[in-house]
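Morning!

This is the sequence you dropped in the shared folder:
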Amino acid sequence: MPAISVELVFALPEKQVLRSITLAAGSTVGDVIMKGDLVSEFPGVDLEKAQAGIWGRLVDRDHVVRDGDRVELYRPLDVDPREARRLKAGI
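The structure's back. Tokens below.
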């Protein structure tokens, strides 16, 4: 089976990681996350519950990745964006 190359991205305010990962064609988002081994770099962050996306679009972990995809893990928001705008506007 041919190999494909994808990127895996995760960020906290104090640390960001971007990894290039090579795996077999037909691999899933879950396979990319497992091979990326972010758990050792982000102890205390529950990456199992983190939503995943490809190029900003939410996908399930069983979604098959394609060569050149950018798999992103999203952490929960601290503040709802609408609430943040209200607070900033003083409403």
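Headline: The first helix runs from residue 29 to 36.

More detail when I'm at my desk.
O.
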